[in-house]
């Protein structure tokens, strides 16, 4: 499905774009050297407050280069092309994680959940990673420290605001710790 979608959008995968006709051994060595991690970066909502620190930690821990992508600054096809060659995709919980569909087999998806959002209650990307033929490793991480959170309850609903909800529901959400 992902391959058909990429063909339909006229997107060349990173693997296809980089083939140069070398030997199988050279290709394997090049693959190892070219492994990278993709981090979805956002500038208005669902920010990773310590993004620079996270990028440095990922690069150091996995000895891979880390590339950031942003739907606010790049086209979806260009992001899909980058993701199609990644070893790992790291992102805050959100719709952009559907792009994990374009990861190569064996890659990892790391979904970061904000404070008071329980990963056990939101599993679409965990489910995507476990679909037959996807062969993706899925890991969720949850922020358990309220002080590391910035909320925007007064923003419009499409930006995560809750002002459109009934007062009782707003109070329940604001009091939520799970």
UniProtKB/TrEMBL annotation:
InterPro entries: Glyco_transf_61_cat, Glycosyltransferase_61. It comes from the Eukaryota. The keyword Transferase applies. Residues 1-29 are annotated as: Disordered. Residues 19-29 have a biased composition (Basic and acidic residues). It is found in: Membrane. Residues 29-110 form the Glycosyltransferase 61 catalytic domain. It comes from Sargocentron cornutum. This is Glycosyltransferase.
């Amino acid at each position: 499905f992902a391959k058909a979608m990429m063909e339909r959008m006229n997107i060349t995968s990173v693997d296809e774009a980089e083939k140069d006709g070398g030997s199988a051994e050279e290709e394997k060595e090049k693959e190892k050297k070219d492994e990278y991690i993709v981090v979805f970066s956002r500038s208005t909502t669902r920010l990773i407050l310590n993004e620079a620190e996270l990028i440095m930690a990922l690069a150091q821990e996995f000895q891979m280069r880390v590339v950031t992508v942003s739907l606010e600054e790049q086209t979806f096809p260009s992001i899909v092309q980058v993701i199609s060659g990644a070893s790992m995709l790291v992102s805050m919980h959100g719709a952009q994680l559907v792009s994990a569909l374009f990861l190569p087999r064996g890659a990892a998806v790391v979904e970061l959940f904000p404070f008071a959002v329980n990963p056990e209650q939101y599993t679409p990307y965990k489910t995507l990673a476990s679909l037959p033929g996807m062969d993706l490793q899925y890991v969720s991480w949850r922020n358990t420290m309220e002080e590391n959170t910035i909320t925007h309850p007064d923003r419009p609903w499409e930006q995560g605001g809750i002002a459109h909800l009934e007062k009782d529901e707003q109070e329940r959400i604001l009091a939520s710790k799970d």
